[in-house]
Design brief:
The chain is built from 17 helices and no strands. It is mostly helical. It has two domains: 231 residues, MFS general substrate transporter like domains (Growth Hormone, Chain: A); 194 residues, MFS general substrate transporter like domains (Growth Hormone, Chain: A).
Length: 435
């Protein structure tokens, strides 16, 4: 019979993965797929909206920014509430918020309405990202935690690819409004799946002890074929357990600052790539048709890279693997200009996606390992929030550089710098829980 919170995590580490764990991780992967689809649905519909309303791309740029601001606010201020109300409750709430706001976007008639609805959607997306990575980490055995958390985060580029494929079919026949309706309904459909098949975090239930905590814990333990508790274990009370201030106290302070720096720099490079890849492909002399495919190639490369990182991290350590991936991405970006006008541009985008997104996603299991259960979602949420500022600044700086006449190759070299800084920042994180 388990007697402490640590006993639960130890038993999870010692036994084989159960259906409860696989199911929870699968639902988290699915939710992250929806995140990828819901983030990029505006990118795939922007041209159609612009054509129908007669608004400039610059005006729609405000809509893109509104979604990013919403994601930042969601990660910073809503996601930490999962440490108080539970991971499952937060995931369900985020899915509901996302589904309703995205479906409602199909009825928008003005840029302002579109901006408000994208901001609201962003709140749910930003909160969801932190919550699913936290829950996945808490159900994954320690020895394979990095792989499972990375796999869950790999749902994001898969969702982006699927959104592009669906958009290519729906928008020509049903218009951009049909695409938002599809995305909203797809998100809402997942709520019953999460309600019935997603398990609440055992660490959260033991630590926070919501109503009927013992019964909820024992129901989950029974499904995992682990002996039940006779009573809730004694735990050490921690002052301000869910407070943001704990992230910057004691030995966590330095680790947190390096993690924020890594997320900020990696997000800046990643969103530079995501925002400018189609335009840069055509600027490199490729047909516009291939510019559309370039984003798909990048995201497919990203998923393979994410899975590969999870496997490598188990063998050689998480921080070293992140450094290798981000360092490789930086080198590839510096070499990118040598392939201008060649079909190899698409190949390079796939390889850069493999290295860049793989290394970037490795930061999520770092965050999940660094922080104790009572502040885990807060820690991940604030790391993502710090990164989102980089996501906002990256494309803006790139736009200024392009406007100033800097070449595509020069832009890639410039943005290789924050990529390598992110790698060094990850290596600088010294935590006994991070390999």
């Amino acid at each position: 019979m388990p007697s402490t919170e640590t006993d639960i995590t130890t038993l999870i580490d010692q036994q084989k993965m159960t259906a409860v764990q696989y199911g929870t991780i699968l639902i988290c992967f699915l939710m992250n797929m929806l995140d990828g689809m819901d983030v990029l649905v505006i990118a795939f519909t922007a041209s159609a909206i612009s054509g129908e309303w007669g608004v400039s791309p610059q005006a729609l740029g405000v809509v893109f920014s509104a979604a990013l601001v919403g994601m930042t606010m969601g990660a910073l201020f809503i996601a930490p509430q999962a440490d108080k109300i539970g991971r499952k409750a937060m995931i369900l709430g985020c899915a509901l918020l996302m589904g309703i706001s995205i479906f409602a976007t199909s009825f928008a008639d003005t840029v302002n309405q579109l901006m408000i609805l994208r901001f609201i959607s962003g709140l749910g997306i930003g909160s969801m990202l932190a919550s699913v990575s936290t829950l996945a980490s808490e159900y994954a055995p320690n020895k394979s935690k990095d792989f499972w958390v990375s796999l869950v985060m790999g749902g994001y580029p898969i969702g982006a690819v699927l959104a592009g494929l669906v958009a290519a079919e729906i928008i020509p026949s049903m218009g951009w409004r049909g695409m938002f309706q599809f995305a909203g309904i797809a998100t809402l459909i997942t709520i019953p799946l999460a309600l019935f098949f997603l398990a609440e975090s055992l660490e959260y239930l033991v630590k926070k002890r919501p109503q009927n905590a013992l019964q909820k814990i024992n129901r989950i333990l029974a499904k995992m074929q682990i002996a039940a508790y006779e009573e809730l274990p004694q735990i050490k009370e921690t002052a301000n357990a869910g407070s943001v201030t704990r992230l910057l106290k004691g030995e966590l302070k330095g680790q947190t600052l390096f993690l924020w720096l890594a997320f900020f720099m990696a997000f800046a490079t990643l969103y530079f790539l995501l925002s400018w890849i189609p335009k840069l492909t055509t600027a490199a002399g490729m047909p516009e048709r291939l510019g559309i495919y370039s984003g798909t190639v990048f995201n497919l490369g990203s998923f393979v890279g994410i899975v590969a990182l999870g496997g490598m991290a188990v063998k050689i350590g998480l921080r070293k693997t992140i450094f290798i991936f981000l360092g490789s991405a930086a080198v590839l970006m510096m070499l990118f200009g040598n392939f201008s006008g060649s079909f190899m541009v698409l190949v390079m985008f796939g390889v850069i996606g493999f290295a860049m997104q793989g290394g970037f996603v490795g930061l999520y299991p770092v965050a999940a390992r660094m922080y104790p259960a009572e502040i885990r979602t807060t820690g991940i949420g604030w790391a993502i929030g710090a990164g989102r500022f980089g996501a906002i600044l990256g494309p803006i700086i790139a736009g200024q550089l392009v406007g100033a006449g800097f070449s595509m190759a020069t832009n890639f070299i410039i943005f290789a710098i924050p990529c390598i800084i992110a790698g060094f920042a990850a290596m600088a994180i010294k935590s006994k829980n991070v390999s």
